[in-house]
Structure formats: C-alpha cells, structure tokens
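Supplementary Methods, section 5.1.

A reviewer requested that the exact input to the structure prediction be made available. We therefore reproduce it here, unchanged from the version used in the analyses.
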Amino acid sequence: MRPGALGIASVARVVGILGGMGPEATVMLLQPLIIARPVTDDADHIPLLVNRNPQVPSRLGFMLDGEPIDPGPTLVSMAKGLQTSGAAVLAMPCAVAHRYQGQIEEAVDVPLLDMVRLSADAAATLTCTGVGIGILGSPAVRKLALFDAALRAAGLEPVYPSDEAALLAAIRQINTEGPVVLARSTMGAASAELLAQGVHVQIIACVEFSLIASALPAGVQPIDTLDQLVAEIIALSTANPTPSETTTSRRSRGAVSKSSIDQQGKEFSLC
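The structure derived from this sequence is encoded token-by-token as follows.
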C-alpha cells in the first residue's frame, strides 16, 4: 500500500507539544500516540512538533516556593515557536502549566487543548451530579483551584487529600529518583484516604503520578489527565471540527456505565 493510503497523512493536523515539564511527561505522551492506531507507512502517523524544554522555570517553585521567575513568558514563547513552525493544534502535558492556558491562547492563533477540562468532562461521564471527585496532584493544583471550576460546572465537587506536603515530596522524589517505593506508598495512601470518604473517581493530576498509577488501591476509578490529552490529540489530528466540537461529540457517544468492578470482580456504583 502506498504511503498515506489509510487517508491519514493527507488530512492530519500538525500537533505542537509544549513539553519537558517534567522531562518524562513528553515521552509518556508520545509513546501512546505512536501506537494509537494501525498504520501502513511512516506517513500515516500523527505529525508532531515537539519542544521538549526542561529549562522552563519551575511551576511549583514559582507558585509554592516564591521563586522569582515566572514560567508564563517561556511557555508563550514556546507556543509561538510551534505555531510559526506549522502546528495547527497545541498540547501541553503538564496540569499545573494550564494555569497559563489563557495567557498562551491570547498569544497564538491556534487552539491549545485543555487537559483540565477534558479530565473534568471524563469525570462527568463516569459519575452522577453532586459526587466528589478526588484530585491527586501537587498542592499548587488546589491552591490554583485548577480543576474546581470545570468540575463544579459539571455538578461535581473537587476533593483533595489532607497531606499535601507528602504528595509534594513524592513528586519531587519521582523527579530525582524515579518511581520509588516510598512515592508509590505516599500516593496510594492519599488515594485510600479519598476512597475511605466514598470518593471512587480520582483524577491523576500530575504526570509524575501517572508513572505510578498502579499504586492506586482497589475500588478507585482513575482518570489520568495524560490519557485524556492523548485521546483528544488522536481525535483532533485527523478531524475537521474544533476542539470543543470534538469533545462534545466524544461525550455524546452513547451511554457510559456509572459503575466499576473491584479486584474481586464485584460491581460497585460510582454515584
């Protein structure tokens, strides 16, 4: 079959990735994009422009520790560069960096996928109005109320673990040492605390925690922000609708079960 015979290469949008936050996040985003669909030739893959910039000033340092350098201008510069290089859609695999979503969107003429809203939309399809949704992330996520508005717009309530300092230490430990046992234990304990409050649906709101998602206890229905971003990139790279139209379409694809199965094979309600 000739290159692009699947009809992908002729219509695919170039997706620009604002990466390097943290360094493994970009790799974790790219891997599923490569294997996401069948191809017959290199030309059938999603075209990507990647700026993997680990020199972006620390988001946590600026927001939590009083470090003086605002990462916003660097992110804007990266977005402009990707647009100039031909990106038709932008994506950023870092939840906390979405604090700068509006600033980036004002600076470019192409859409930036909203990983926060995508994850809130996913939570809404899994559970019922009025239910609490757990947020597993850095203290900056709660401080910025990053997910709060999107969840409340869907009739859901964000719920945060109590030991934010331990979660922040786990994130920094993963950044320096990798997905070690102590970090897994910390996230597992935070998730279990939420579960004990009846919070089954939990958003993994930090890419470092995506590395250790298997540490979540039985009974949790996770929503990984990175997975939501991957799914939207795949949908948009070969679609003509705008990001909001594509998301609306995806949410309306039939009924979604508002129950899950625990490790003993028993079904339980997420409502």
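The CA atoms of residues 39 and 45 lie 7 Å apart. These observations are discussed further in the main text.
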